[in-house]
Amino acid sequence: MRRSSGKGRNGRRHRIGAAVLAGLCVIAAIGARAEEPRKAGGLRWSTDLDPALRRARAEEKKALVNFTGLGWCPFCIRLEREALRTKEFVAFASKRFVPVVVDFRKRPPLPRNEALKNRKLMKKYGITGFPTLLVLDSSGKAIGRQAGYSGGGAAAVIRKLSRIVEKPSSGG
Length: 172
Prior knowledge:
Blueprint lengths: L8 H27 L13 H11 L2 E7 L5 H11 L2 H10 E7 L8 H13 L7 E5 L5 E6 L5 H14 L6
Parallel strand pairs: 1-2
Antiparallel strand pairs: 1-3, 3-4
C-alpha cells in the first residue's frame, strides 16, 4: 500500500478545500461588514423608510436618514466611527429619532430592489453627496440636513441636529 505524502492528488484536494473555506470566510466577513450600519452603536437603523415613518408617527419622533457610502466613502466611515456609534449620540438619537440608513455600498452590491429604492430616495430628497444626514418629520417632509462631515465627533453632529429639530416649523 502506498501512503500519500500530501503532495499528490489528495494533498491538492485538501489545499483547494482549505482555500474554498478561507474564501467563504472572507465573503461572510464582508457580508457582516455590510450589515454594520444597521446596528451601529446600539441604534437599530431601519433600511426601509416607510415603516420607519410609521414608527416615527407612533412614537412622536422625527426620522433621521443617513445617506451613506460605507466601505468606500472616507467621510461616511469617519462620521460612523467618530459620531454615530458613540454612546453620546446613541443616547441623543434614541430619544428623538427613528434612524434609517440609505446605503450606497459597492461591495457586496446591494440587492437590485434595494439599490433602486435608495436611488429613488436620493433623487426625491435632492441628495448630492455622502454622507448626508436628513431629518424628516413623520410625514416624510424634509426639515433639515447635514451634508458632509468635517469632524468634531458626536458633539458637533448633536449640535447640528438639535438646531434642526428645535427650529420652529413653518405652517404646522
